[in-house]
């Protein structure tokens, strides 16, 4: 039977979960290991995972509820483990929207998800973040002599390994499921369409795409 495709949706109040007791009634109790595996510090296993990770997503939320998730990437081990309760994440050049950083200024609580290519499990870290411009710390996070403008220093509160089900279901690392990037418009085309500024001339769009790629090469750090 084919799935019904919705074109609009607003749930009826009777189908909305409005409190935690209702939520938990839908699921069986979690098992002891899922609770006991949570640490309050970076142990040897978390250290080994973070040192191998070239990619982390940072979840933040502002005082007014504005949420953001931002990807950060660098060579494996780019997140510095200062001690078993402290991490430092370099802030590399980006688009200067500063969504995550602005959130941290008003609400320091962050969630981190560390990913290692080829690994189906992930490492989750929750804590409180501070934006730091200490020259000594920034020097330790430099690449080819280029310092980040600031570092996100995270005071670790909880750490735990996350199961592989989401990555297994998505076939994320399976080449047989990789998709052809050319099937979607370029980043530049998507961004310009959002502002109704996309050029009608394909040659001009090609030049803009080339300029974007050139910018990637020159401004990664």
Quick structural gist:
Residues 42-160 form the Pyridoxamine 5'-phosphate oxidase N-terminal domain. This protein is of the alpha+beta class and 221 residues long.
CATH classification, class level of the largest domain: Mainly Beta
Major sheet description:
7 strands, antiparallel
CATH architecture assignment name of the largest domain:
Roll
C-alpha termini separation: 51 Å
The proportion of residues in beta strands is: 15-25%
Assembly state here? single chain
Low-confidence stretches: none
CATH superfamily of the largest domain: Electron Transport, Fmn-binding Protein, Chain A
**For the residues shown, what is the average pLDDT?**
94
Structural class: alpha+beta
Q: How many strand segments?
A: 7
Radius of gyration: 21 Å
> How many domains?
2
Helix content: 25-40%
- CATH topology tier name of the largest domain: Pnp Oxidase, Chain A
Strand arrangement, largest sheet? 2-1-5-6-7-4-3
Number of helical regions: 8
Give your account of this protein's structure.
The chain is built from 8 helices and 7 strands; from the N terminus they run αααββββαββαβααα. The chain is α+β, with helices and mostly antiparallel strands and 221 residues long. The protein folds into 2 domains: 34-169, Electron Transport, Fmn-binding Protein, Chain A (Pnp Oxidase, Chain A, Roll), CATH 2.30.110; 179-219, no CATH class. β3 (80-83) and β4 (86-90) form a beta hairpin. It is globular and about 60 Å long. 15% of the residues are buried. The mean pLDDT is 94. This is Pyridoxamine 5'-phosphate oxidase N-terminal domain-containing protein.
């Amino acid at each position: 039977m084919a799935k019904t495709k919705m074109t609009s949706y607003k749930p009826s109040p009777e189908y909305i979960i409005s409190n935690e007791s209702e939520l938990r009634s839908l699921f069986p109790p979690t098992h002891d290991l899922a609770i006991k595996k949570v640490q309050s510090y970076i142990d040897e296993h978390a250290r080994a995972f973070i040192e191998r990770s070239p990619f982390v997503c940072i979840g933040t939320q502002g005082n007014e509820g504005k949420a953001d998730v931002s990807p950060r990437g660098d060579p494996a081990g780019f997140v510095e483990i200062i001690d078993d309760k402290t991490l430092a994440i370099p802030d590399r050049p980006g688009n200067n929207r500063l969504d995550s950083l602005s959130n941290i200024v008003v609400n320091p609580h962050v969630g981190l998800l560390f990913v290692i290519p080829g690994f189906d499990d992930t490492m989750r870290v929750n804590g409180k973040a501070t934006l730091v411009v200490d020259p000594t710390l920034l020097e330790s996070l430099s690449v080819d002599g280029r310092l980040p403008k600031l570092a996100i220093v995270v005071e670790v509160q909880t750490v735990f390994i996350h199961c592989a089900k989401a990555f297994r279901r998505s076939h994320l690392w399976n080449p047989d499921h990789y998709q052809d990037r050319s099937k979607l418009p370029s980043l530049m085309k998507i961004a310009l369409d959002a502002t109704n500024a996309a050029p009608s001339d394909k040659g001009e769009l090609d030049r803009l795409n080339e300029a974007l790629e050139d910018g990637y090469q020159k401004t990664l750090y």
